[in-house]
Amino acid sequence: MTDLSSALRLNALDCRIVGRAESLFADDLRAEAAALEEQIRGSRILVIGGAGSIGSQTLKTILRFAPKTVHVIDHNENGLAELVRDLRSSPEPVLAENLLTLPFDYAGAPFRLWFAAQEDYDYVLNFAALKHVRSEKDPYSILAMLDTNVLKLVGLSQLLADRGGLKRLFCVSTDKAANPSSMMGATKRLMEHALFSPAIGWRQGLAITSARFANVALSNGSLLQSWQHRLAARQPMACPEGCRRFFVALPESGHLCTLAGLGGEDGNIHVPALNPDDHLQLLEDVAVWFLEEHGLVPFFTRDEDEALSNVDALAAQGKWPVLLTPLDTAGEKPYEEFVAKNETLMETRFSKLHRVPYLAPGDPEAFPTFLARLREIGGGSGAQRLTVDHLKSLIAEVEEDFAHSHVVSTKSLDQRM
């Protein structure tokens, strides 16, 4: 049987951040190891968006169970190159007979033509997403999120419609899709509609699952990764003040998606068994732990000039400047949640993974109508009237509460350190 021991251990910094020495899903993976090996060994798997943090971590987990063919699609060519270097340089062998990476946008003509020439896959795992709250700075960036997170997924359904050998489809979501306050969160909630809505026409008998989960510590584009970059560049760190977040470690993100993607219940969004009392972390505390792992202590300040001008002097004292910023930019929440109002949290056979059955809009025509209007905008129809308010009103026709829950601000994270 596959030895998972090294994959389940967390490093010292992860231990400090998430408060555990091995993966939250360690017991579940041990219990499921034989079933996963039987399911994955010799299979054909397509991973879309596989060069990103969560996709690559899921790939590393899946490769331990010896699939026959793994094709990895990502438009990030450099990310794919680094992924292969990482896999081939690891002490863990790459057990797939055929591992191929391709620099494709999964909605582009090269991908469609290439896909048509491939044999059927057993499993398709989709991690492609625009995922930053900072991307809602203007209507065109929001439209790009809607295109990637929603329309391209609908297009994928057409490619998969006649693939009778496909057993399971998984798409990653986000905790920000629950009672969304940001455009990014709203687009991922719409992604869930595209994934589960009967109006899309996914093939009958195809098991479809998703997952919402916490911040992935040190993942690409994350606040904690920015801290790594700031230390390397000898620049001050920045930290939202009074902000609490759930965290999972990078390996845990792959463990969660493997369980949800290959063993989750059809028609359900899966969430980690984390609770606010035990697992919400204050970001200032995380900054302390992060710096302590680098032999430093934080010097907290709310003055940007003070933070910028004192890096060298503070570093000489074993300190590092951390600029505390108010949580007042567009779409930001002071807390996280996995389950929206009117949704029901249910147990699964996994001890650390719960599920939320998909809840469709009350009006069955709301989402198809939204898609039609979105395509009109993307085709240039009405482009002159494209505004954030216009897109917000379209989203609110599907997600009514978004008209009130969206956090609006004239301030953007692009204006912050």
Automatic annotation (TrEMBL):
Source organism superkingdom: Bacteria
Family, similarity comment: Belongs to the polysaccharide synthase family.
InterPro entries: NAD(P)-bd_dom_sf (IPR036291), Polysac_CapD-like (IPR003869), Polysaccharide_Synthase-Rel (IPR051203)
Residue span, Polysaccharide biosynthesis protein CapD-like domain: 45-355
Species of provenance: Rhodovulum imhoffii
Name this protein carries in UniProt: Polysaccharide biosynthesis protein
